[in-house]
């Protein structure tokens, strides 16, 4: 090899979120010279944890699902020191709070599943059948089903409108970041399957520990933080500081809006926006690691995160995190605080806000028919990956990054 070309990378990956990290890892392990450029000081994209006054504040309401195939393949779960949520929820509706849980994991909550006590017998049977099918059928079968909206899928499954409106809509609104249940049913079935087969948890050090662990696997010199890209050129990339990085292949692994800017002509879906408010309280308003969902729609969900992972706050402190649809706006914090008082049945006048974060494009809009995976090839030597190219999930982002690496390797081998 010409000595002058030894340090020129084969591939530049733009963006060190989950997709970019997976892509760079797979390319490096395949023996390719890779440079991973990240504009910010930390990796993770939208999956980050801020530190403030001893609190760990995840950006957006985050949960970590242990059942995803990409997660099992790439991460050492023991090192993450995962702390589980209750395998169930408390749903507040105009008729009061309702507790529901997986009776195989929380037998003490099984009474809520007595027919007629919380849900009609017909709805319990319909949900049981849906859950069994999604848990037991091969994932490939679920992926090949005709697509429709989640709302239509629940009707087809035989779940009544009152049960959807009281329980499922408030819960799934927090999963999809939309309350019309217009999201792809294929995605819904895969998410439902993952919840049944896995556990919803938080890493003790915050959700940012997930991308941080992935980044640890990169060879020295691959990751370059605080290196923003201005544009993609015929020979590689032009950096914001005027420098250039040449490469035969460029992979754009950013959020959808940035990808569209860097790759003119790229079609990207709209995004869903969510805002999360973090409050500290003198005592836990709910002494259990349970997600509370709000049927009124005033908030999506709320949880006492220090009941899940005490490490999210200084010793003895309480952290409550609450998410709402859309961006923050003047007076919204006060409205949220009043609603939290109603949901938890407590006085919140002395609660202090320790952080608020709006995540624009937190999830792609995934209306049916939604392709669960699509090629990352955009043009000769140009690729794009991310959850907007697959599904709005940790699994989707990692799988899209892995697909980009496979397609790059195939194309480079062809010369």
Could you list some keywords that capture this structure?
415 residues; alpha+beta; seven-stranded mixed β-sheet; six-stranded mixed β-sheet; 21 strands; 32% helix; 24% strand; globular; disordered N terminus
Notes on the protein architecture:
With 415 residues, the chain is an alpha+beta fold. It is 32% helix and 24% strand. It is built from 13 helices and 21 strands. It has a 7-stranded mixed sheet, with helices on both faces. It has a 6-stranded mixed sheet with strand order 10-2-1-14-21-20, with helices on one face. Helix 1 links the parallel strand 1 and strand 2. It is globular. The two termini are 16 Å apart. The N terminus is likely disordered.
Number of helical elements? 13
Oligomeric grouping of the chains: single chain
Report low-confidence residues grouped into runs of 5 or more: 1-5
Give Rg in angstroms: 22 Å
Estimate what percentage of residues fall within beta strands: 15-25%
Main structural class = alpha+beta
- Biggest sheet descriptor: 7 strands, mixed
Indicate the mean pLDDT.
94
Distance between the termini: 16 Å
Helix content: 25-40%
Q: Rough shape? A: globular
Adjacency order of strands in the biggest sheet: 8-7-16-17-18-15-19
* Number of strand segments: 21
């Amino acid at each position: 090899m010409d000595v002058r070309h030894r340090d020129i990378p084969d591939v530049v990956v733009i963006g060190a979120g989950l997709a970019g990290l997976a892509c760079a890892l797979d390319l490096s392990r395949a023996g390719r010279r890779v440079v991973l450029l990240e504009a910010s000081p930390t990796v993770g994209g939208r999956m980050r944890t801020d530190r403030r006054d001893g609190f760990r504040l995840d950006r957006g309401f985050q949960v970590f699902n242990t059942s995803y195939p990409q997660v099992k393949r790439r991460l050492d779960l023991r090192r993450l020191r995962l702390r589980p949520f209750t395998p169930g929820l408390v749903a507040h509706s105009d008729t009061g709070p309702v507790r529901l849980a997986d009776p195989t994991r929380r037998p003490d909550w099984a009474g809520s599943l007595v027919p007629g006590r919380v849900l009609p017998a017909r709805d319990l049977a319909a949900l049981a059948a849906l859950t069994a099918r999604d848990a037991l059928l091969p994932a490939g079968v679920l992926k090949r089903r005709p697509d429709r909206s989640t709302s239509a899928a629940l009707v087809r499954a035989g779940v009544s409108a009152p049960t959807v409106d009281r329980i499922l809509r408030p819960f799934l609104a927090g999963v999809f970041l939309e309350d019309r249940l217009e999201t792809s049913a294929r995605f819904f079935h895969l998410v439902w399957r993952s919840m049944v087969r896995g556990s919803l948890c938080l890493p003790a050090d915050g959700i940012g520990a997930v991308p941080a662990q992935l980044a640890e696997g990169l060879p020295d010199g691959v990751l370059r933080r605080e290196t923003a890209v201005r544009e993609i050129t015929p020979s590689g990339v032009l950096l914001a500081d005027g420098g250039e990085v040449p490469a035969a292949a460029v992979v754009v692994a950013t959020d959808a809006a940035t990808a569209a800017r860097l790759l003119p002509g790229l079609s990207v879906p709209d995004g869903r926006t969510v805002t999360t408010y973090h409050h500290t309280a003198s005592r836990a308003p709910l002494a259990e690691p349970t997600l509370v969902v709000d049927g009124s729609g005033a908030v999506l969900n709320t949880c006492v995160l220090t009941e899940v992972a005490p490490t999210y706050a200084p010793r003895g402190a309480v952290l409550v995190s609450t998410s709402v649809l859309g961006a923050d706006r003047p007076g919204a914090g006060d409205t949220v605080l009043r609603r939290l008082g109603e949901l938890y049945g407590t006085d919140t006048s002395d609660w202090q806000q320790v952080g608020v974060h709006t995540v624009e494009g937190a999830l792609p809009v995934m209306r049916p028919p939604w392709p669960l995976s699509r090629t990352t090839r955009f043009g000769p030597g140009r690729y794009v990956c991310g959850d907007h190219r697959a599904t709005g999930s940790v699994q989707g982002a990692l799988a899209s990054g892995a697909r980009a690496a496979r397609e790059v390797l195939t194309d480079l081998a062809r010369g």
